[in-house]
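Re: that chain you flagged

S.,

Sorry for the slow reply, it's been a week of failed gels. I finally had a moment to sit down with the sequence you sent. For the record, here it is as I used it:
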Amino acid sequence: MATAKTTKEKKAPKAKAVKSASKDAGVSKLRIRVRAYEYKILDVSVKQIIDTALRFDAIVLGPIPLPTEIKKYTVNRASFVFKNAREQFEMRIHKRLIDIVSPTPKLIESLTNLSLPSGVNIDVKLM
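Prediction finished late last night. Pasting the structure tokens below so you have them in one place:
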């Protein structure tokens, strides 16, 4: 019985090392970050991107909603007097993240030719 326990302990670390090596080997990923001020336009753009990727039988992870970035500005209402009278404005930037696992060249070409509405910012990284 003592020999069985020692052989199990020796095999367990080797199995973990093999699993991590197989995950990293040869898997490329296309990471797309989409940003917009209006969430409705953002959701339409994300749907177009996902539909294009699924048309080419790609594995799509997402859309993952990222935290909304809020920029607040405080401005005086009057130019000279009435220091206590102020207005507050804010800009909300909505973000989504899409991962496409092992993209093909045809898929990348179709994504670059995709026309999206104005006001949508896209960052594409190949990982």
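What I noticed first: The longest strand covers residues 59-76.

Talk soon,
D.
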